[in-house]
From TrEMBL:
Gene Ontology MF terms in the entry: sugar-phosphatase activity
Matches recorded under CDD domains: HAD_BPGM-like (cd07505)
The protein, known as: Phosphatase/phosphohexomutase
Organism placement in taxonomy: Bacteria, Pseudomonadati, Pseudomonadota, Alphaproteobacteria, Acetobacterales
Signal peptide feature range: none
């Protein structure tokens, strides 16, 4: 039995945690940037609880916790530089990447990620996945990150599809909420990884 319902006209995939196991890369980049900037240790378990959030959402939480502002641009730039140096630790999530390969050329497909275009494109390119997709939508393209539906609605628009005709593959609570708000069906990829 296929995971993709017969009436599906297009597929939209999240990147991090869905197509790509990028957590070690993000963790290294962010922890180094935060520790250098804040001059204090950042526990690994703190980082694991904030997956699926945009860079600015993470920094909002940090500023709230500290009770003060931080050098957002400096931290983001340092984190991204660190991540790009860690591309070698990336691994595809094969069970999901294989679905994209299976439907490449059969259905229009997009990536919609709360990550930056710079990092998302580098990850997909590094793993040879970028060529599978007709559109890549990132936080750089929309006003509101997931859990807002903006990213998924833009992806459907770029694929020239109605939102209800799209199926989303997601791993995060924020992403699944965004898909529902966009009027799209979704698959929680965590159920495929068992």
């Amino acid at each position: 039995m296929s995971l993709v319902p017969q009436n599906t006209a297009g597929l939209i995939f999240d990147c991090d945690g869905t197509l790509v196991d990028s957590l070690p890369m993000y963790r290294e980049g962010w922890i180094t940037a935060l520790e250098d900037s804040l001059r204090q240790n950042v526990p690994l378990e703190w980082f694991h609880g904030h997956g699926g959030m945009s860079e600015h959402m993470v920094l909002d939480i940090i500023e709230e916790k500290l009770g003060r502002g931080v050098d957002r641009e400096g931290i983001i730039n340092q984190a991204r530089t660190g991540m790009l140096q860690q591309l070698h630790v990336l691994r595809e999530i094969t069970v999901v990447a294989d679905i994209a390969r299976q439907y490449h050329g059969r259905l229009p497909m997009a990536v919609a990620s709360n990550g930056s275009r710079q990092i998302v494109s580098a990850c997909l390119r590094h793993l040879g996945l970028e060529r599978l997709f007709d559109a890549i939508i990132t936080i750089d393209d929309v006003q509101n990150p997931k859990p807002a539906p903006d990213m998924f609605l833009m992806a459907a628009g770029r694929l020239t599809l109605e939102p209800h005709a799209c199926l989303v593959f997601e791993d995060s609570r924020e992403g699944m909420m965004a898909a529902t708000r966009a009027g799209m069906k979704h698959i929680d990829v965590n159920t495929l990884l068992g």
